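ABC transmembrane type-1 domain-containing protein (Scylla paramamosain), 70 aa
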Amino acid sequence: ITRSIVVVVVVVVVVVVVVVVVVVVVVVVVVVVVVVVVVVVAAVVVVVVVVLMMVAAAAAAAAAAAAATV
């Protein structure tokens, strides 16, 4: 009887450890995905800002050229 109790306890402990490991792995994966998404969004924002600045600079240069010709 005591041997079967020990077996049950060992099985329960192993199952709990496996579940904890799986949960930790899932949490780590979720954190990595969130970080990647944040980095991608930041990169897109930077690209958009740079493009807008280039467009604004080109517009200003065109306006200056137009004013110079007049």
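The two ends are 103 Å apart (CA to CA). The first helix runs from residue 2 to 69. ok done for today
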